[in-house]
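Section 3.1: Structural characterization of target chains.
Under the original work plan, the team committed to producing a structural model for every single-chain target entering the pipeline before any wet-lab resources were allocated. The record below documents one such target. The sequence was received from the expression subgroup and is listed exactly as submitted; it comprises 160 residues.
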Amino acid sequence: MNRCKASRNAPILVALCTLMLPCALLFSAPARAQAEPETEASLGGRNFPIGTLRGKLVMLDAPNIELDGSPDRLSPGARIYSAERMLVMPAAINGQRFLVNYRRDAAGLVREVWILTPEEAQAKRESAEKPLLNFWPFVASTGPRDDGKTPFDQLPKFGE
């Protein structure tokens, strides 16, 4: 017993799909080559996540580090990757200096560190001079500041 009835529209759908496929291929826009910025991956290195910064790291006694000449800390469970793409224990590189890419966690502690190869070090990357949080109190360097005596209507507005 056949419970499924044959659809009368099946031949029409097959014909329509066979006509649409060549049209879709004909009118699809070809991918254009864009000039992309030079990255570590284009120089034969690793792909680093978005938001990765560049700095000079000196490993002190863990979790204390020196990053670009200022004291900093590693987050609990921080990972340090060597130039050979292996995990490195902080005690193994104690007192050594490296050019690194790094990421911070939400608390501002250094969460991931990649020790760079000479090829990866040639690529340009943002440095750590940018503010940690990219909104008004941390980036506004000019304009009125709240000294506790400024009237409310004269305080800086969002985005100023």
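The mean pLDDT is 76.
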